[in-house]
């Protein structure tokens, strides 16, 4: 859809109009009042001096609203109903996530007497990244551990400086995002670690040890489970070579 402004009377202002008869650009119904105000202020014309022409475009530039909707609602390249997904693509990541949470749950029973826990929500998000898309930048081991340690540390510092509340949450999250961008270690699950520490009183006694536990230590076990098939294959090949 395109919007054109066509003058019906002469200009009362020496300034050139913002929208000339030849100017055409995509617009939406939401932006029309703003366009009308801008054109009126620049040209000095009243609303009666111009008429609004709305017409649909065709060809290469057509469907601006449709293309905008497609940007917001882009279908996945792989998924149910496509021929690219095999049964192993579904079963192995699911089995890996189950094994990871089962191991962390067993470790919980070991450290429960000290008031600690491995099964935290951010590690569930780490499982989704590691097992569903292991080649993604967020799943690279360097990104995982640097982001987990750095973001958790920012949560501890924010709580110490601002105390519990919205200011500590906002400052910790902003610092975590700046840290990941500056170091090139974007790992989205790590951004939830500072919020978890600030709102989770059971972690406060860890202080700076929270930078390592349970986030980074838990990721060690998750990465070992993810790499277990590759390690097994490597051992088999080495044994066959001997």
From TrEMBL:
Taxonomy of the source species: Eukaryota, Viridiplantae, Streptophyta, Embryophyta, Tracheophyta
User: InterPro entries from the xrefs?
Assistant: HPP (IPR007065), TM_HPP (IPR058581)
**Span of domain HPP transmembrane region:** 84-225
Report the domain of life of the source organism. Eukaryota
Which UniProt keyword terms apply here?
A: Membrane, Transmembrane, Transmembrane helix
* Name of this chain's protein: HPP transmembrane region domain-containing protein
Where exactly are the transmembrane stretches of this chain? Answer: 114-132, 144-163, 170-188, 208-225
Q: Which Pfam families match?
A: TM_HPP (PF04982)
């Amino acid at each position: 859809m395109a919007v054109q402004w066509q003058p019906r009377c002469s200009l009362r202002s020496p300034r050139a109009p913002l929208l000339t008869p030849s100017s055409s650009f995509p617009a939406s119904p939401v932006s029309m009042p703003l366009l009308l105000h801008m054109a009126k202020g620049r040209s000095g014309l009243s609303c009666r001096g111009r008429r609004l022409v709305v017409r649909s475009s065709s060809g290469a530039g057509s469907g601006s609203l449709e293309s905008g909707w497609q940007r917001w609602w882009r279908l996945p390249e792989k998924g149910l109903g496509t021929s690219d997904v095999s049964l192993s693509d579904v079963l192995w990541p699911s089995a890996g996530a189950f094994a990871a949470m089962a191991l962390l749950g067993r470790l919980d029973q070991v450290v429960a007497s000290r008031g600690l826990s491995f099964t935290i929500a951010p590690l569930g998000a780490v499982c989704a990244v590691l097992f569903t898309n292991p080649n993604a930048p967020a799943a690279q081991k360097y990104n995982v551990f640097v982001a987990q340690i750095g973001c958790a540390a920012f949560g501890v510092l924010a709580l110490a400086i601002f105390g519990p509340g919205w200011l500590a949450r906002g400052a910790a999250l902003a610092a975590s995002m700046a840290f990941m961008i500056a170091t090139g270690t974007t790992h989205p699950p790590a951004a939830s670690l500072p919020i978890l520490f600030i709102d989770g009183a059971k972690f406060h006694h860890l202080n700076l040890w929270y930078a390592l536990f349970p986030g980074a230590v838990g990721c060690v076990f998750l990465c070992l489970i993810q790499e277990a098939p590759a390690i097994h294959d490597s051992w088999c090949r080495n044994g066959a070579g001997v």
